[in-house]
Amino acid sequence: MPTVVTVPVADLYCDASFESEVTTQALYGQNVKAVTTTGSWTHVQTADTYHGWLPTASLVKNPTRPSHVHGIAEVDTLWTHLFSAPDTTPHRPLMTLSYETQLPIATNSTNWTERWIEVFLLDSTRAWIQSGDLRLNPSPRTLSQTIDLAYKFLGLPYRWGGCSGFGYDCSGFIQMLYRQMGYLLPRDASQQATVADAEEVTAYEPGNLIFFANRDGPISHVGMIIDSTRFIHAVTTGHQGPRTIQITNLDAPEWKPRIASVRRYSLLNDLLCASASTLEKHSGH
User: Fold this and answer.
1) What is the pLDDT, as a whole number, of residue 115?
2) Has residue 110 been placed in a domain?
3) What is the pTM of this model?
4) pLDDT confidence bin for 239, thresholds 50/70/90
5) To bridge 178 with a disulfide, which of 139, 183, 267, 278 should be the other Cys (CB 3.0-4.6 Å)?
6) Residue 183: which of 210, 221, 143 has the closest Cα?
C-alpha cells in the first residue's frame, strides 16, 4: 500500500520531534515507505533509502488515483502556485509547489502551448498550473542542458537537509542535477563519493563531481564542475558572502586545499557517447 506526501515540502527529522535535526525532504506526491508510527509521527524511508520522521498528518495511505491520466507535468521553476481555476487574479493559490514536483495531467490536448494546464491532486480533484512553469512528460536532460539548469539555482539560499526549490544542501543539489540526467545518486556527499560505477580522475571536466574534506577528515562537501576552471555548489561555510548556491573558481584558496577527489560517473560517458552519435547522424545528412 503506497504512502504519499501531501504537503508541498515535507521535512524529515532524525527523531519524532520538530526540535531534532532535519535529515532530508520529500515533495508533494512522492511515495515513501512507512516503517513505523509513534503517536502523531511516522518513520519513513524515501526512494533513495534515506530515513526520517515526519508528522503523520502530512501523509496519506493509498490515495485515490485518477482513472484517466494524459501525461505528467513536472514543475520546472524554483516554485509555482497551484490554483483552483485558470486565473491568478481573484483566486488564492491552493498551494505553492517546489521544483521537480510531478502531477498527473487531467486534460487530453495536442496543444500544450495553452497558458494553463489542468492537473489532478492526490484526492483526484482538479487544479490549474501555468504551463510556462512546467515541463511536460519530462525525459532525462543532456549534460549541457543540466549545466544550463544549474545556473537557474544561483543565489538560492542553502538549507540543511534541503531537497527543494526553496533551498538545497550541497549533496541534495548535486543529487537533483544528476537525477535530472536520469541517474539516482545516494543522498549524502560521502556516499556519492563511493558510488561503484564512478572512477577517480584528475581532469576538471564538466559534469565531474568534486569532493572536499577538512584536512584528513571524511568527505564533507560536494560540487559539480561546469568548466575547466569552475564548479557550482550549495555553500554553507566560508568567506564568500551569502550562504547560497554559487559558482567558485577551482583554484580558490579557501577550497583548493580541501579537494579530496574528483570523480566521473559512467552516466557521463553514456551521455557523451549518445551526443556524439547524434552529431554523427546529423552530419551524414
Assistant:
1) 87
2) yes
3) 0.90
4) low
5) 183
6) 143
Instruction: Based on the fold, state whether residues 87 and 205 are members of the same structural domain.
Output: no
- In terms of phi and psi (left: phi > 0; alpha: psi -120 to 50; beta: otherwise), the region of 132 is alpha
Tell me, what's the pLDDT at 65?
Answer: 81
- Decide: 263 and 209 in contact? Cβ < 8 Å: yes
Q: CATH number for the domain including 123?
A: 2.30.30.40
Asked if residue 173 is part of any domain, the answer here is yes
Q: What is the rounded distance in angstroms from the CA atom of residue 106 to the CA atom of residue 125?
A: 10
Burial of 223 (0-12, 13-18, 19+ CB in 10 A): buried
Closest CA to 175 of 12, 47, 3: 47
Residues 193-208 pLDDT 10s:
998 888 999 999 999 9
pLDDT tens for 26-56 read 999 999 999 999 999 999 999 999 999 999 9
Mean pLDDT, residues 81-106: 93
Structural domains counted in the chain: 3
Q: What is the extent of the structural domain holding 40?
A: 3-61
pLDDT of res. 274: 54
Q: Are 117 and 107 in contact (CB under 8 A)?
A: yes
Residue 46: all three cell numbers together: 524515501
For residue 9, list its beta bridge partners: 27
Q: Which three cell numbers stand for residue 237?
A: 561555510
How far is the CA of 65 from the CAs of 10, 46, 277, in angstroms?
A: 21, 20, 40
In a domain, 282, yes or no: no
Q: Does residue 224 contact residue 144 with C-beta atoms inside 8 Å?
A: no
Say if residue 185 is in the same domain as residue 246.
Answer: yes
